[in-house]
User: Which sequence fits this backbone?
């Protein structure tokens, strides 16, 4: 697999399109941190890290509106790819939907959202946009 982060986002996107409640993703430390951010910001219902004596699995419970059945995640967009990395300083951090969405960054202090990176005054690689 050449781009595990893109695979992670695509699995979640496909599960939402198909109306699934739970999606399983192969685990890595970066994916675990991204999952924690999605949970903290209210984009997913719950998650569980499972050990399968290999690399592990992340089980993600997707979040839907109980009345209209619309998913909490409208768009997952990969920004930095293996062929074209996108780095930014803290002064030029992107604002997703004028602050309504989040950008997930990989920084020297770990995986952060754009708002947290602005407070820490630290830049990094822009992994994806979520809204």
Assistant:
């Amino acid at each position: 697999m050449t781009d595990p982060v893109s695979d992670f986002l695509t699995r979640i996107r496909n599960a939402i399109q198909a109306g699934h409640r739970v999606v399983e993703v192969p685990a890595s430390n970066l994916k675990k941190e991204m999952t924690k951010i999605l949970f903290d910001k209210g984009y997913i219902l719950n998650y569980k890290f499972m050990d399968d004596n290999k690399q592990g699995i992340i089980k993600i419970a997707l979040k839907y509106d109980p009345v209209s059945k619309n998913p909490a995640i409208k768009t997952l967009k990969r920004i930095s790819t293996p062929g074209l990395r996108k780095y930014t300083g803290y002064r030029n951090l992107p604002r997703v939907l004028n602050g309504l969405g989040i950008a997930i960054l990989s920084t020297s202090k770990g995986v952060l959202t754009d708002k947290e990176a602005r407070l820490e005054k630290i830049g990094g690689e822009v992994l994806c946009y979520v809204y």
The longest strand covers residues 44-50.
